[in-house]
Amino acid sequence: MSEKTTTVKLQTPIQNGDQMVSELTFREAEVGDLLDAANCSTEMEKIVTVMAAISGTPLPVFRKIKARDLASIMKQVGNPVGNEI
What we know:
This protein is α+β, with helices and mostly antiparallel strands and 85 residues long. It has four helices and two strands.
């Protein structure tokens, strides 16, 4: 059984080491992803922490995503933390 993923094209690519990233693929969040975000102090920090994890993107790199791209990601992927944490 394959895991459901969602791929989102970024309007503004981001740099990850030597590589320019123009799209990210997100998997469904797991309990471990939610636990990793549990100590974040704001809802936005929780969302970004989980989004980075479920896309396999280092958090410092994910933080470079433009706000309009995050809005597009949220629209397509949804809120991965919901009201769970």
